[in-house]
Amino acid sequence: MSGGEIAGLIAAGALLILVIFISIFLMRITKVMKNVEKTVDGVNQSLNTVTKDVDVLSSEVEGLLVKSNTLLDDVNGKVANLDPVFKAMGELGTSVSDLNTSSRNLASKITSPKTVRNTMATRVARAVLRKK
């Protein structure tokens, strides 16, 4: 065997080893790609499920918002109707306070010693005039 034949055999062996390593690498890459494909399929299924759930939730939330707006409009209308009632109650409180002040002033005038004397003197004078 000549040097060229030996070099050819070495090159052929190296090429065979290279092909074996490349085929092992490709088999591993194939397994990884299959796992990635399974993972992507699982993610797509999960995403579809989540999308359906979000659609259901969004329709529920929309319904709740409509109901909330209706209730809020109703409450605002009722509060607007109550405003005059509270205003009238405030005015009534002011009137009662004024009446209490006037009653106290009248009571203090009637029960003052000067008023009592005048009243008693008037009664005595009437009684004396009646006896004559």
TrEMBL record:
Task: Provide this UniProt record's keywords sorted from A to Z.
Answer: Membrane, Transmembrane, Transmembrane helix
Instruction: Please give the name of this protein.
Output: DUF948 domain-containing protein
Cited PANTHER family:
UPF0478 PROTEIN YTXG (PTHR40070:SF1)
- The source's superkingdom equals Bacteria
Keyword Transmembrane appears in the UniProt entry: yes
What residue intervals traverse the membrane?
A: 6-27
Which InterPro entries would you find in this protein's record? UPF0478
A UniProt-annotated Pfam family:
DUF948
